[in-house]
Structure formats: C-alpha cells, structure tokens
C-alpha cells in the first residue's frame, strides 16, 4: 500500500501534491511578501578580484554620496545607509502624511591580503564603488617555470 501525502491549506481544505496556481500566488503575495510592509531590501553587490585589488560594486540608485558611511573595523568593512524621506505638502489640507526610511547595512570580511590603509570609495550613477588594493606580497606574480 502506498501512502499519499495531502497538505491542508489555511482553511483546512485538503489539496493534493500539486498546489493550485491560486494558492501559490496567494502564499507569495499575502503570507510573506507584503505582510506588514516588513520587506527588507538589500542592494545587490558585485565582488571581483584582479591581480592588484578587490572591488566591490553596490547598486544603490537614488542616494547621494552623503547618505553612505563606509567603516572598517578589524577586517570588517561595513557600508551603512540611513536616509529619511518625508512626503509632506504644507500648502495642502491633508489627512495623511507618509514618512519613508531607507536603511541598510552590508558587511564584508576582508581577506588578510587586503591593504586596509589604502581603500578608496566613490559613488557615481547609482553605483558605490569600493576599491581595496592588495598588499605587495599578496599580489599575483607570474613567472615561467622551466621543465627539467
């Protein structure tokens, strides 16, 4: 005899192994995605390495360079943004005001080969670019090895 699992949905209705399309969309949009507007958006990053440096690119459009704080503490590089926006109209009679707070923190542990004293950061066209040079002894060197 084979046992077949059935799962109960929110209303304790039985459904088979394959959930209905409506249930999938309901669970995405009501259960976790928009519940209480608690969605935390963290900007995407690209991390690359060349022979001379590490590079972090953080996509954060709509911000100013003054909105960023880049800190280094014990090999932990932290990027912090806390920006308050208010949508107020003083010349209108309104019954609702909305405040928006954009904040996030991204942290990266630097490798031992990173030169902590010469890190540079710049913000241009919505991209925060952080360049972390490598220590001289850690830079990749290439040489020809003779075969004996």
Automatic annotation (TrEMBL):
Ranges for domain SHSP: 36-148
PROSITE patterns listed in its UniProt record: SHSP
Domain of life: Bacteria
SUPFAM superfamilies: HSP20-like chaperones
Record-linked InterPro entries: A-crystallin/Hsp20_dom, HSP20-like_chaperone, Small_HSP
Pfam families: HSP20
PANTHER family cross-referenced by the UniProt entry: HEAT-SHOCK PROTEIN 20 FAMILY MEMBER (PTHR11527)
Family statement: Belongs to the small heat shock protein (HSP20) family.
Protein name (record): Hsp20/alpha crystallin family protein
Organism of provenance: Pedobacter cryotolerans
């Amino acid at each position: 005899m084979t046992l077949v699992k059935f799962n109960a949905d929110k209303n304790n209705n039985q459904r088979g192994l394959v959930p209905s399309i409506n249930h999938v969309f309901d669970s995405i949009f009501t259960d976790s995605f928009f519940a209480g507007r608690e969605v935390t958006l963290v900007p995407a990053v690209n991390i690359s390495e060349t022979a001379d440096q590490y590079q972090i690119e953080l996509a954060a459009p709509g911000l100013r360079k003054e909105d960023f704080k880049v800190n280094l503490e014990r090999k932990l590089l932290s990027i912090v943004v806390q920006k308050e926006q208010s949508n107020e109209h003083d010349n209108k009679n309104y019954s609702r005001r909305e405040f928006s707070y954009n904040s996030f923190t991204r942290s990266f542990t630097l490798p031992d080969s990173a030169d902590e004293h010469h890190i540079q950061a710049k913000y241009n066209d919505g991209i925060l670019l952080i360049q972390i040079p490598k220590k001289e002894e850690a830079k990749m060197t290439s040489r020809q090895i003779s075969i004996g």
